Amino acid sequence: MSDLNTAQNSASDVKAESRIFPPPAAFAANATISGMDAYHAMCKEAETDYEGFWAKLARENLHWHKPFETVLDETDAPFYKWFEDGLMNVSYNCLDVNLQKGNGDKVAVIFEADGGEVTKVTYKELHHKVCQFANGLKSLGITKGDRVVIYMPMSVEGVVAMQACARIGATHSVVFGGFSAKSLHERIVDVGAVAVITADEQVRGGKHLPLKVIVDEALTLGDCEKVKNVVIYKRTGGAINLTAGRDLWMNDLVANQSAVCEPEWVSAEHPLFILYTSGSTGKPKGVQHSSGGYLLWAILTMKWTFDIKPSDVFWCTADIGWVTGHTYITYGPLAVGATEIVFEGIPTFPNAGRFWDMVEKHKATIFYTAPTAIRSLIKAADADANVHPAKFDLSSLRLLGSVGEPINPEAWMWYYNNIGRGNCPIVDTFWQTETGGHMMTPLPGATPLVPGSCTLPLPGIMSAIVDETGHDLPNGQGGILVVKRPWPAMIRTIWGDPERFKKGYFPEEFGGKIYLAGDGAIRNKDTGYFTITGRIDDVLNVSGHRMGTMEIESALVAHPLVAEAAVVGKPDDTTGEAICAFVVLKRSRPIGDEAKQIATELRNWVAKEIGPIAKPKEIRFGDNLPKTRSGKIMRRLLRVLAKGETITQDVSTLENPAILDQLKEAQ
Ligand code: PRX
């Protein structure tokens, strides 16, 4: 929480924004939540009868095999339980329910591969695939409660694998395909996986990248005895090795399986998935989510935030390796019977017009992406008129969304004018891996928009801003973002580490029952709108990807040449934040070409230890790091140096002020 001052400072930059964009009248007229009165009425309902509010929504929006009687159980707070005695199945709610509603022949997924090939899958076909694969998993002996790691490219098969796990009550843990063998291994071991589902290779920007080879390497790193099988989806046909008795092709596994698979009815509290994310310590944490409460929120946010209608073509550009891909690709859109686009590849291949070309081709109506992607496409459009959105027919769009990091007002305005053509509301959705779904966001048919603000909490979400003693702060004063009541989609625990869950998210200093989001925020004096001012812990947000500074530091010091390392974030025009590492070697400080060469070696080392997303953009070498006389690294100063600014702070407590000059030079 030491960074609260930083948060307050940056808040002063954003609170000056005064442009307001009311929802277009035609949008508001047909919206699920139409007008601010409707929004306030729902908030009131939640405040008046909190459990009644959620119980009604859970009964109306989910299929229950056995209805729940208890709504919220707070006896073991902060280990809250929602709808626990109700029995349900997530995959049944996403697929079978749609068949019953007559959506069988509706397209569920429009998949576009890296090379542009398009595959369309109806709800009936998806149901068929999921049931066959679920039976295949069962034939391997995988049952309810087992954990399965999924390390797959963006594909229909990736969605099928997740849904199939849900169908049989196995808990999945998806690992993003950009993580290294070591990161994958760490997750396989921590979660205690009995199987890994992967592909031979993945394709990104025309390049074939290994997946199975990395799984093989991960499984040689020890403690993986629980893994009995590796199931491989053939994406490219690239050469791989098969270990007899352990490895099998997905196609062979499903070949003779029945397309009927009775779902495993599980308690609403049954863990649907565990997703690893970065925290302030070196070890990633396995965020455990529920089945019933989680799916309820995926459905409600699809309806409220995205105003989803049967005619929509919804496109979330995230990867299934992140929470956005879980909630707004695999579960939310399917549970509301939408047609969704799933894409493989990158926004800049075959050129930076890919997104706009796909919107035009598939007539996307709702488009949801990250500010980093928008910022890089602005640059590309400025540089090349052929990929400028003006070249494309984007008239199908009616709603835009942003996720994962703050969107700067300039990028917001470009998105609004050039992609939405001034007709599409933008929902700037603030949430986290831990929250399961959106927490604060404009409602497109109700909330007047302010660029750079996630505006107000959704009905039922009790967000507030408090000081370091947990007391409410008035509007206009920056502080710590908290949520005062539990909500159905919240994190249930950290897999295998309930103490870390309690201490990290529900600290005693705040009474032990208030969820601490990890971000700073400020509310506008007049509108009460929230603006997120950034993380208040040692977590960085690079291109919308969460990275722990300690994770990167641990990777660096594992290199034989490195004695000490400190990592800080540095503002970056495209990626939001960039990783800047200050490194002390076991030998003398390198300079010139040698420094450059060692910096490259260290970058590649980090890519191998964690994954390419963790590569420091800048590395600076010093004979030491700036430390207080008691030996504490002064990160505050490193942040200033990383920004290239002059240090104006008091450095009198510094043991070694001369070191600061050395650390100005980036490699
Ligand atoms: O700092 C906030 C930022 O991303 C963090 C959560 O990262 P992760 O768990 O990876 O989930 C990303 C996808 C939901 C938050 O603590 N963040 C997320 N959305 C926004 C945001 N910051 C500002 N505005 C947002 N809309």
UniProtKB/TrEMBL annotation:
Entries under Pfam families matching the protein: ACAS_N, AMP-binding, AMP-binding_C
Signal peptide (from-to): none
Binding site for CoA: R204, G205, G206, K207, T324, S543
Family to which this protein belongs: Belongs to the ATP-dependent AMP-binding enzyme family.
PROSITE patterns in the record: AMP_BINDING
UniProt PTM comment: Acetylated. Deacetylation by the SIR2-homolog deacetylase activates the enzyme.
Superkingdom of origin organism: Bacteria
Binding positions for Mg(2+) per the UniProt entry: V557, H559, V562
Binding positions for ATP per the UniProt entry: G404, E405, P406, D428, T429, F430, W431, Q432, T433, D519, R535, R546
Function: Catalyzes the conversion of acetate into acetyl-CoA (AcCoA), an essential intermediate at the junction of anabolic and catabolic pathways. AcsA undergoes a two-step reaction. In the first half reaction, AcsA combines acetate with ATP to form acetyl-adenylate (AcAMP) intermediate. In the second half reaction, it can then transfer the acetyl group from AcAMP to the sulfhydryl group of CoA, forming the product AcCoA.
Protein name: Acetyl-coenzyme A synthetase
Positions of modified residues (N6-acetyllysine): K632
Domain AMP-binding enzyme C-terminal: 551-632
Cofactor(s) in the UniProt record: Mg(2+)
PANTHER family: ACETYL-COENZYME A SYNTHETASE, ACETYL-COENZYME A SYNTHETASE 1
Gene Ontology terms, MF aspect: acetate-CoA ligase activity
Residue span(s) of domain Acetyl-coenzyme A synthetase N-terminal: 39-94
Catalytic activity line of the entry: acetate + ATP + CoA = acetyl-CoA + AMP + diphosphate
Gene3D superfamilies tied to this protein: 3.30.300.30, N-terminal domain of ligase-like (3.40.50.12780)
UniProt EC number: 6.2.1.1
UniProt keyword annotations, A-Z: Acetylation, ATP-binding, Ligase, Magnesium, Metal-binding, Nucleotide-binding
Gene: acs
Domain AMP-dependent synthetase/ligase: 102-487
